């Protein structure tokens, strides 16, 4: 009878489905507060870790050379979706698989880097969030000048291996003359090159440091902060964590918010959405943060006119 035929199926339906498998590839970040917000985003979407999803974490700890092996390892495990930060790691993943959905968390310029065809219609197996870092670059330089009006010479520490840096530097160079700033570009590819870079920066007589957004710089920020403090350089970065730990100021998207929103993409993909059909979103929250203890130690008085615009002031 029909009842006989359907019975085994309904019995099957009540068995809990095996948990879905999420890969997470972090290049500069660790499982810190920001990344915990990814877990929180999954919980808000109704997933219980261990029961509904299993997360496979991979960390490069700021070493770009490890990207190929970490990518190969994750792809081999065939997760249902992979969340990834940095342009280089996303490029490596895209080369390694055209079938596993990829969600970009911290990627600066996905269209300019060739990861998606457009923000509205990414196409392919990659979607997620754009950091809008390129668009923010010149704005951050302007804020550094507003915070320290007497600045005329700024060093820019960048990573020649980071695909979007040359374009962002072109934007900075275009913005500098109107701000009466002279820029000196100093490159560092690995943390072993930091101290040589700072020797070069001191030869340029820079009065401030503009630190490009980079996984290696973030992962090795303690070393950088020590060098900045020795050089007595007021420093601007994109992520507030550096300011909490002693840099002068930051301006950029709220990374915790981006990690939380990347969980929303994972949810849609696990429910059957195709990554190529999900528009790439941009940050909605930008934060301007100052560390007044650092300002005081450097003998800098930040004008009240810009302090009142800050989202957070560390005293």
Amino- and carboxy-terminal Cα gap: 77 Å
- The gyration radius over C-alpha positions equals 22 Å
The neighbouring-strand order within the major sheet is 7-6-8-9-10-11-12
- Please report the total strand number as a whole number: 12
Count of helix runs: 13
Point out poorly predicted stretches: 1-15
Proportion in helices? 40-55%
Alpha-beta classification: alpha/beta
Main sheet: strands, sense, barrel: 7 strands, mixed
Order of helices and strands: HEHEHEHEEHEHEHEHHEHEHEHHE
- Which shape, going by the Cα principal axes? elongated
**Strand fraction band?**
15-25%
Which secondary structure elements does this structure contain, and how are they paired or packed?
Layout: H1 2-14, E1 20-26, H2 33-44, E2 53-59, H3 67-76, E3 81-84, H4 87-96, E4 102-107, E5 126-130, H5 133-147, E6 153-158, H6 165-175, E7 182-187, H7 194-203, E8 208-211, H8 215-219, H9 221-231, E9 235-237, H10 240-244, E10 249-253, H11 255-270, E11 286-291, H12 292-297, H13 304-307, E12 312-314
Parallel strand pairs: 1-2, 1-3, 3-4, 4-5, 6-7, 6-8, 8-9, 9-10, 11-12
Antiparallel strand pairs: 10-11
Helix pairs in contact: 2-11, 3-4, 5-6, 7-9
């Amino acid at each position: 009878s029909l009842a006989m035929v359907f019975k085994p199926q309904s019995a099957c339906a009540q068995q809990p489905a095996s948990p879905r498998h999420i890969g997470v590839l972090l290049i500069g970040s660790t499982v810190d507060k920001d990344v915990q917000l990814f877990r929180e985003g999954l919980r808000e979407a109704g997933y219980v870790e261990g029961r509904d999803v299993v997360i496979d974490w991979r960390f490069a700890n700021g070493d770009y050379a490890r990207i190929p092996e970490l990518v190969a390892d994750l792809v081999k495990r065939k997760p249902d979706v992979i969340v990834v930060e940095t342009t280089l790691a996303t490029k490596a993943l895209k080369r390694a698989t055209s079938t596993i959905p990829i969600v970009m968390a911290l990627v600066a310029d996905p269209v300019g880097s060739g990861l998606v065809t457009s923000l509205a219609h990414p196409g392919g197996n990659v979607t997620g969030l754009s950091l809008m870092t390129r668009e923010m670059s010149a704005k951050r330089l302007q804020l550094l000048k507003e915070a320290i009006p007497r600045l005329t010479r700024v060093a820019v520490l960048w990573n020649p291996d980071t695909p979007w840096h040359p374009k962002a530097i072109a934007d900075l160079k275009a913005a500098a003359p109107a701000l009466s700033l002279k820029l000196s570009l100093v490159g560092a590819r690995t943390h072993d090159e930091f101290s040589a870079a700072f020797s070069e920066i001191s030869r340029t007589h820079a009065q401030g440091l503009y630190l490009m957004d980079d996984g290696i710089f973030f992962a090795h920020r303690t070393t950088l902060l020590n060098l900045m403090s020795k050089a007595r350089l007021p420093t601007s970065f994109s992520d507030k964590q550096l300011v909490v730990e002693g840099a002068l100021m930051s301006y950029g998207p709220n990374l915790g918010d981006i990690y939380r929103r990347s969980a929303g993409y994972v949810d849609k993909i696990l429910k059957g959405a195709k990554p190529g059909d999900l528009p790439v979103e941009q940050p909605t929250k930008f934060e301007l943060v100052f560390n007044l203890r650092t300002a005081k130690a450097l003998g800098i008085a930040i004008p009240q006119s810009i302090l009142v615009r800050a989202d957070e002031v560390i005293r």
